[in-house]
Amino acid sequence: MPFDGLVMAAVRKELENELLDGRIDRIYQPSPLEIHLLIHRPGTRARLLLSAHPENARVHLTGRVRENPPSPPVFCMVLRKHLEGGRIREIHQRGLDRVLVFQVQSYNDLGEPCLKELICEIMGRHSNIILVNPDTKQIIDAIKRYTYAVSRHREVLPGREYIPPPEQHKLNPLELKEEEFRQALLEAPLETPVAAILQRILDGISQVMAREILCRAGLAQDLILDHCGEYEIVVLWQAIQQMAGAIARGEFQPSLVLDEQGRPREFAAFDLTHFHPLTRRQGSMNALVDLFYTAREEDQAYQSKKQSLLTVVRREMGRLSQKLSLQEESLAKAERAEEYRIFGELLTANLYRLEKGLSEVTLENFYDPEKKMVTIPLDPRLSPVQNAQAYFKKYTKAKQTREETGNRIEQTQRELEYLKGVETAITQATTVLELVEIREELEEQGYLKPASREKKREPEKPRPLVFTSSDGFTILVGRNNKQNDYLTLRLAKGEDVWLHTKDIPGSHVLIRTGGRTVPETTLAEAASLAVYFSRARESQNVPVDYTLCRNVHKPRGARPGYVIYTGQRTLIVNPNQELVKRLKA
């Protein structure tokens, strides 16, 4: 993980400057594995975040305020009892381990001063936040409690002795001797990548920092031990020594790497030069860590909401597909209605030739132009008249079934097409807000129960995507059915041009004309946008209908996003991602 021992050291150095002698005013626990401490010093207030999340464990200052549960969890109440009103006297790190200890001077039940230690162990899925009495070394409580059944090394329970995490037996770069380094390096198998060896033998070094050491030594990122000679070992040692010297002096260079889309990708306590030419942002270690994990948690929340909605929609689509199959099967059976009528007519016309007890009869079909013979099954228990009446009853029932089933099939197909459109909107959504709008729509349509426990979100005005064509026309694109309805039914003016992929679920696209004639270039660009933001994004030669907005109407009671239109013309265009980027810019 990016949060290595060096990042912890850089965070600790900044926290000492910001928090020492600060008073802990309030403590919150916004989520099961996250603690916020509000710390006050004269003239400044800070919010310290401690997380024991298996993927996002870390310690840093944050500017983000999280919503708290209605009633505080037990661990939060324990921390409030022992730490609120106390002052942070010391912050120390054990070597370059990812363990940070806050020593807090607080007061016991008798009002006497006493020391408490809040220990933050940042170790992936084994991360924990533990409150300890340093005098007795006993655990007061922990955000994660477990017994020897979970860990053979130690129990983390109130009243048990605090035992530090097991030693990693790595080499501390600040105390490392060259011969120790050589020996540890050369003990690895020859085919092992050097970056992996550095991470394994050096304390506080993550994989990304191991690659940075190789880069600063002027060596290849994929270098293996078998290709290392005396020169490579010497330059590696020198690069490690330079970094160790900077660590000892507290001269960190916090760095955050952004990917091509500007999203945080990696961070470290030193400048990550091996990520050139990607953008690298400098700043305080706490601020960069906060920025990285804020973006990561937003992305995780986005992916979770997206997958949850897709599961619901695809489950409903599967149910409807199965329902449609049964309905079509029922319709196929009902298609024999005309055959039953003919059988009844033939039996009625030939009653004089029939008698009770026959199981079948072969008669001339005078409805057939070729007058072919047809064999009609009979019930021997019924008279000829009763057999004819039975076929007429079957005809009436099959005819009704055919009409009703045809209507139901049409309704099922419309609902299935609607859900295909919703699925497209979910897969193409880029923000949590868009997913929230889609969830609200699914709740309104009865596919999801309203999230009554959550705080009701204030309705926001939909915000369609905005593009500018090569000719300077504004083009608006809806990203979901709520935005589509807002775009087409409220924003659009009669002279604006409306576009949509022909018979394919997708976004409503609007060209704001202001009464001007729309050039062919703008029309083609808007049509390409309509294809890109539709279910046909990966297709070629896609038909796109366009018409004036005055010709677009929504039927009464229709589902969100559904409209009918007249006077349309059709263009055949292809999606173009580069065009999307250019027009958006």
Q: What CATH architecture of the largest domain do you see?
A: Roll
Kindly report the name of the CATH homologous superfamily of the largest domain: ibrinogen binding protein from staphylococcus aureus domain
Q: How much of the sequence is in beta strands?
A: 15-25%
Rg, Å, rounded: 36 Å
Q: Count the beta strands.
A: 22
Q: Distance N terminus to C terminus? A: 34 Å
Structural class: alpha+beta
Task: Please tell me what the overall shape is.
Answer: elongated
Taking the sheet with the most strands, its summary is: 6 strands, antiparallel
Measured as a percent range, the helix fraction is 25-40%
Describe the structure.
The protein is of the alpha+beta class and 585 residues long. The chain has four domains: 5-161, ibrinogen binding protein from staphylococcus aureus fold (Roll), CATH 2.30.310; 178-286, Orthogonal Bundle (Helicase, Ruva Protein, domain 3); 319-426; 465-583, no CATH class. It has helices at residues 5-19, 74-83, 178-186, 194-201, 207-216, 230-249, 285-334, 337-349, 384-428, 432-444, 481-491, 520-532, 577-584, and strands at residues 23-31, 34-41, 44-51, 58-61, 87-93, 99-107, 113-121, 128-133, 138-142, 255-258, 264-268, 280-282, 360-364, 373-377, 465-468, 474-477, 497-501, 509-512, 542-548, 552-553, 564-565, 569-573. The strands form six sheets. It has a six-stranded antiparallel β-sheet with strand order 15-16-18-17-19-22. Strand 8 and strand 9 (138-142) form a beta hairpin. The longest helix is centred in the middle third of the chain and has 50 residues, at 285-334. The protein is elongated.
